[in-house]
Amino acid sequence: MAVKARKGVLSRALALAMATAMTVSLLAGCSSKSAEGEASSKNGAAESGKRVTLKVEVFDRGNSPAPHTITNNYLTQFVQKEFGDPNNIDVQFVPIQRSEEVTKLNVLMASASDVPDIVFVYDSSVFYRYAQQGGLTEVGPLLDEHGPNLKKFLGEETLQYGKLDGKMYAIPGKRAITGRYASYIRQDWLDALNLPAPQTTEELYNTLKAFKEKDPGKVGGKVIPMGMALAPAQYEPLIYSFIKPVKGDLTYPQRYEMPFHEGFKDAMKFMNKLYNEGLISKDFSLDEDKSQLVKDIQNGNVGFFSDDVDRIFYDEGILDNLLKNVSGSKLAAIDAYTNAEGKHAKSRYASNGLYIMIPKSSKRAVEAIKYLDWMASGDNLVHMYSGVEGENYELVDGIPVMKPDAPQEAVDRIYNGGDMAIISNGKNFGDVKTNEKAWIFGFPERNQEMLRQSIDIANQDTIGPIAFGKPIEAEAKYGTALLDKLNVIIVKSTMCKPEEFEQVYEQEMKDFMAKGGAELQKELEEALKELK
């Protein structure tokens, strides 16, 4: 069965290819003034009394509420007043459309005069390319001298993601939360059948069969024991309960590298079993955006499903709509998938978010590090994310909790807080438990307890991505094609007849390896051997 084409893949691939070509041909311009830039960056012109300009990239999402603009708003003024003026620095924000970030950044990086002093991307391959081509300032020594608060805030685990061949060329933003997925079951269906919540994969399978055979929700032919979509939040929790890490509690970093792990075939075989026994969503292969799954859950037809840890808990979201639409319905968070060791294995995010970089041509490297260090100091991050105490938020157990009755003027002042506070991907308040508590406070009180349970599940027996500290060239070369092919493997292996599974799986994997998988696997295995 053919997989529906992923929306926007072609346009994104073309844009990236054009941007890459431009960068390769022009990045030399970015480093042409490197000697002059390095000299100035070591001195820090603002220290000598000379007023200087620090240019900082900012995402423009086209959502600035009047009278604010993306370059002149409450937070840009706050930065200027609290950091810029005391340090004799004019902070100038350079907007880049979020939807065109890589393409636009490549153009700027090719211009030594126009590129901001602080730039950033989410894509590690872009960061590695800039570093390899000599377009970035080495920031390790600058961090040691001018970034004590920043280094403490980020920690060594996060900082390692900014290294290439042992040298630091990027400052990684720090994720506040690394847990990803949790699973949910209709508690009222369990109660109707007098069944306990399943605690293992085998128990889950038996429960799903009972849901199908006995229809405890009385939905007739609409019953879907396990809700499934062709989306990571649905299939990854199942797959990760079968695959084995390649080093400690670590897997290869990219989603399309799951087929290289021992156990992936077993995961596909289990999905095939579920599908052929009518236990998962029949048309999951057509539901890449999860819209049909959401409808099925909210209409009360789904007995069990997995999702992003926070997704169902928003005000008037999936959970609220289910409870409103189906009288007597109850949902419970559970951790049912188990691996061969009896652990509830599941993936977690890497500890880093953005890759924050200083172009080699910048004369303001010292000022750039000082700005990021200022952001990590005192309560500056809290202010950028949460605004003014008493107006935007109140402190609850020492945690800023947003006021539901805050006036619109106060709400608007921090509309772009997440994009300004670039060293933090999410609200960081010192430690993970505090971050999680603050996160929970942001949801409707009626849903907070189950979200708390979901976060505990998401953090149980997690497996994280390897940080190689070097580019994996085949990822950039074949990644898009292999991600599409992964979807094909999942769909065809799941939907074929059981007696055809071996032949279909082997053929699709053969095609996967021919499309660049073999070259990628070889490079990953070599990089793994070199990893200390």
Key attributes of the depicted protein:
alpha/beta; disordered N terminus; 532 residues; four-stranded mixed beta sheet; 45% helix; single chain
Task: Set down the secondary structure blueprint.
Elements lengths: L8 H18 L7 H10 L8 E9 L13 H11 L4 E9 L3 H9 L9 E3 L2 H9 L7 H7 L1 H12 L3 E2 L2 E2 L2 E5 L5 E6 H7 L7 H14 L9 E3 L5 H9 L9 E2 L12 H13 L14 H8 L3 E7 L9 H8 L5 E4 L11 E2 L4 E6 L7 H11 L4 H7 L6 E4 L2 E4 L5 H6 L3 H4 L3 E2 L6 H10 L6 H11 L3 E4 L7 H23 L5 H30 L2
Parallel strand pairs: 1-2, 6-16, 8-10, 9-17, 12-17
Antiparallel strand pairs: 3-13, 4-5, 6-13, 7-10, 7-11, 14-15
Walk me through the structure.
The chain is built from 21 helices and 17 strands. It is an alpha/beta fold and 532 residues long. Residues 1-41 have low confidence and may be disordered. Strands 3-13-6-16 form a four-stranded mixed β-sheet. Strands 8-10-7-11 form a four-stranded mixed β-sheet.
Average per-residue pLDDT, rounded, comes to 91
Count up the helices. 21
Binned, the helix content reads 40-55%
Percent strand equals 5-15%
Spatial order of the strands forming the largest sheet? 3-13-6-16
Structural class of the secondary elements?
A: alpha/beta
In this structure, how is the largest beta sheet organized? Answer: 4 strands, mixed
What ranges have pLDDT less than 50 throughout 5 or more consecutive residues? 1-41
Overall number of strands: 17
First-residue to last-residue Cα separation = 43 Å
Shape: globular
Oligomer state of the chains in this structure: single chain
Radius of gyration: 25 Å
